[in-house]
Amino acid sequence: MSTRTTPRSRTDAVRNQRLLVEAATRAFAEHGLAVPISRIVREAGLGKGTIFRCFPTKDHLVAAVVRERFAELAAGAESLLDEEDAGRALHSFMAGAAAVYIGDRGFFESLSLAPRSHPEVREVEQRLITAVEQLVTRAQRQGAVRADVTATDILLLLGGVRQAAAPLHATVPELWRRYLDIVFDGLAPPPPGHRPLAVPAPTREQYEESARGLARPSPAPTDQDREVRP
Fold first, then answer.
1. Within 10 Å of residue 17's Cβ, how many Cβ atoms?
2. What is the largest CA-CA distance in the chain?
3. 141 CB-near residues (< 8 Å, 6+ apart)
4. Which of these, 21, 158, 185, lies nearest to 96 by C-alpha position?
5. How far apart are CA 128 and CA 177, in angstroms?
6. Is there a contact between 63 and 120 (Cβ–Cβ < 8 Å)?
7. Are 32 and 108 in contact (CB under 8 A)?
8. Rounded CA gap, 151 and 126, in Å?
9. C-alpha dist (Å) from residue 214 to 133, 177, 207
10. Per-residue pLDDT for 225 more than 50?
11. How would you label 61-81 residue by residue, b for 16+ Cβ within 10 Å and e otherwise?
12. Residue 130 to residue 204: CA distance in whole angstroms
């Protein structure tokens, strides 16, 4: 009996994977990464065993979702590189990225967890960093951003914007925009005689090493996982 993959089975596999990623994206964004696999499978409208044929572990599913988010952010940054006003372009990127951090709970949680260390995630995150470096450099050349700010600073500060607004998010959902503007205003070139920043910016290598340090073996799914109990 032939075990070759047929064109139909390959098409079905791609479709199923897409359905699972879309369902997981919605679930993680609203509820965070603790959402049970069973819920994602139900929302995708698939059978219980399908998810483990597409993604060996939950970490692999999370990594697929995170990769797409990073790709969206990278594309957004790249689309702004030809804007005439480089300062406005950087602000536009930061606003779009902060909105993702605020609106996608699972993505924000993933930044300090193992799925960020997956090679395919790191590859697209490096694409994002490169695009942000270009945005920052252009803004610095136009005098809109201080010379000692780096792309790593920008990406880490976006997390600070989210954390600052989080306690009041339910009652003041747009509060993050205030803190984003405060952060952005702080990036402006300081007046002559200013004191230097107390600590140098973390390097790109340090930022990327933080992702590599999250790597850990992904546990194989247990029998209970495979049953996908509700």
1. 18
2. 79
3. 86
4. 158
5. 22
6. yes
7. no
8. 11
9. 23, 30, 12
10. no
11. bbbbbbbbbbbbbbebbbebe
12. 10
Average pLDDT, the chain: 90
Residue 124: name the closest of 52, 202, 65 by CA.
65
* Residue ranges with strand state E in 139-178: none
Q: Give per-residue pLDDT as tens, 27-51.
A: 999 999 999 999 999 999 988 788 8
Residue 36 C-beta-side C-alpha neighbours within 13 Å: 11
DSSP 57-94: SHHHHHHHHHHHHHHHHHHHHHHTTT-S-HHHHHHHHH
CB atoms within 10 A of CB 157: 18
**The two three-digit tokens of residue 133, written as one number:** 């470096």
73, 97 contact by CB (below 8 A): yes
* Tens-place pLDDT, residues 58-81: 999 999 999 999 999 999 999 999
Give the pLDDT score at 13.
Answer: 82
Q: What is the pTM of this model?
A: 0.86
- Measured CA to CA, the distance from residue 49 to residue 41 in angstroms comes to 9
Domain architecture of the chain: domains with CATH: 63-215 (1.10.357.10)
Residues 117, 212: contact at Cβ < 8 Å?
yes
The CA distance from 213 to 201, in Å, is: 19
Residue in this structure with the two tokens 């952060």, named with its chain if needed: 183
